[in-house]
Design brief:
By secondary structure, this protein is of the alpha+beta class. Helix content is about 35%, strand content about 20%. Bound molecules: flavin-adenine dinucleotide.
Length: about 475
């Protein structure tokens, strides 16, 4: 996504742009899996901030609706707790506040105030963090930056996310519901900054969306635009090295030979780039040493039954959230009692599964460490997930599975170069993690730029699109010199 965004922007600025992609398809983690009669979006399942995507079409003078369709979700997520409590979370902030008051006795004014503050945090800091390279002085000398710095206390950067939630809400289930948003950038709510309370305010404010043709159509629509404006694509072409002349990047090397270029924008995982594509070059070790975000195991199950109590997005919380994050980030184990995310795109796109059946994307967060990814660990996790879902849904799930495949940290690494299978590069557990994340440019090599979920401003589709914008702007300035 980062690479597509950067390629489109640089082409629109008048440059000749060629994309070299190791896989035979466009979109990276937004892959499609067909397992028997079931279609799955292999990676991302939640689409937010569609404007960042639409902007690329508008920049090209096109109508986004001619390329891509999506709909707003009324219900954002169906939540299930081990004690039998459930909640269907409406997208509308006032309706969510009411639902939390009715279900858990929460003070609805506190919920509304919490979400409003999240929106204010974004209004204050979003522009600085998402539209600019953090590691350039100019970012902090604008009037907007000065305003944000004066009001930095409002961002609650130095509070922990869980601490904020525990102090704001009375019911532990509400705390857990909002804590889970730290996982949107692969982080730990017990360590990450309360700055990230802005994340739930997107879903319960601007909204969450479903692309009518599935998540992969986000990338495919950008690919169509890119080819129409003249970006050239070479698929099944792995970049094997970044070519350098002195302190300047001069191109890339593939199996077919060297391709000269005035600038290179890398959308590969930043650790893969330094370790595998320029191993002899000094690397920014401090940025690469930052602890990784979570990885995931995803079971893709074709289920020959439909479940009325389930929606598009479903979360089955673990009983001890703290123990789960301790396993993910401290003891580095696959959780024994995991929180399970279940996505069913067939709820909105019925042709993803045969009639009366559902395509289950069942995801559990695990540490980013491929060494933990053994057949025994996978078999144990599969049984654990089946036991939990069967108990919570009151039906034996295993006999209903008629098609199956799985994604693990190792396959994430093999398919997209995600280092150790990390979903989003480094995690955001440290209060200063934003500043340690790799920038969108190389400090050492002129002409080398970075985009994608492992560099600034972070992982996920919206931020990857933003990183493409920042990288393209930096590359454009460099090429104009
Ligand atoms: C299971 C899962 C669930 C997720 N859920 C969500 C979600 O719900 N919402 C959300 O917003 N985000 C989610 N994400 C994260 C999201 O997919 C990414 O952050 C986002 O797609 C950005 O990707 P990217 O630009 O970093 O590139 P990637 O998707 O990582 O793509 C990098 C591309 O570079 C190519 N490449 C790498 N090395 C080379 C090389 N040497 N030569 C040539 N090509 C190379 C790869 O083949 C790949 O196509 C999820 C990810 C996963 C895996």
């Amino acid at each position: 996504m980062g690479g597509l965004a950067a390629a489109i922007r640089l082409r629109l600025a008048g440059h000749t742009v060629a994309v070299y992609e190791a896989n035979g398809y466009v979109g990276g983690k937004l892959a499609v899996l067909q397992v028997g009669a079931y279609r799955f979006d292999a990676g991302p399942s939640l689409f937010t901030q569609p404007d960042y995507h639409a902007e690329l079409f508008k920049l090209a003078g096109k109508n986004p609706a001619d390329y891509f369709a999506y709909q707003r979700l009324q219900t954002v997520c169906h939540y299930f707790w081990p004690d039998g409590s459930t909640l269907q979370a409406p997208a509308d902030p006032a309706a969510l506040a009411r639902a939390l008051e009715e279900t858990f006795g929460e003070d609805s004014t506190k919920v509304k105030a919490y979400l409003a503050r999240g929106r204010k945090k974004f209004a204050l800091a979003g522009d600085i963090f998402l539209n600019n390279p953090l590691q350039r002085l100019g970012t902090f000398t604008s009037a907007k930056a000065a305003k944000a710095i004066m009001q930095i206390y409002k961002l609650q950067i130095f509070k922990r996310l869980h601490g904020l939630h525990a102090a704001t809400f009375r019911h532990p289930h509400t705390v857990q519901l909002f804590d889970r948003y730290a996982t949107y950038n692969g982080s730990n709510p017990y360590q990450a900054s309360a700055l990230y309370s802005m994340i739930p305010s997107f879903e319960h404010g601007e909204g969450a969306y479903f692309p009518t043709e599935g998540m992969a159509s986000i990338g495919q629509s950008l690919y169509r635009l890119a080819t129409e404006i003249g970006v050239a694509f070479q698929f099944n072409t792995r970049v094997e090295a970044i070519e350098r002349t002195g302190g300047r990047v001069s191109g890339i090397r593939t199996a077919a030979g060297i391709v000269s270029a005035d600038a290179v924008v890398s959308n590969a995982d930043v650790t893969h780039l330094y370790r595998d594509l320029m191993p002899a070059a000094p690397a920014p070790e401090r940025a690469l040493a930052q602890p990784l975000s979570t990885s995931a195991v995803v079971f893709y199950w074709g289920i020959r039954r439909s479940f009325g109590q389930l929606g598009l997005h479903n979360i089955f919380f673990s009983a001890d959230y703290k123990a789960e994050f301790k396993a993910l980030f401290q003891t580095q184990q696959w959780p024994e009692d995991p929180t399970i995310y279940l996505n069913i795109s067939a709820k909105y796109k019925p042709d993803d599964a045969p009639a009366g059946s559902e395509n289950w994307f069942v995801m559990v967060n695990v540490p980013a460490q491929t060494a933990l990814d053994t057949p025994e660990a996978l078999a144990t996790l599969r049984q654990t997930v089946l036991r939990i879902l069967s108990a919570r849904l009151g039906t034996e799930i295993e006999p209903l599975i008629e098609a199956e495949t799985v994604l693990t940290p190792t396959s994430i690494q093999n398919r997209t170069s995600g280092w150790q299978g990390a979903l989003y590069g480094s995690n955001s557990n440290s209060l200063w993690s934003g500043f340690w994340r790799h920038p969108n440019f190389s400090k050492r090599y002129k002409g080398l730029f970075f985009t994608g979920g492992t560099v600034h401003p972070g992982g996920g589709i919206p931020l990857a699109l933003k990183s493409g914008q920042i990288a393209a702007r930096l590359a454009q300035a460099y090429l104009q010199k």
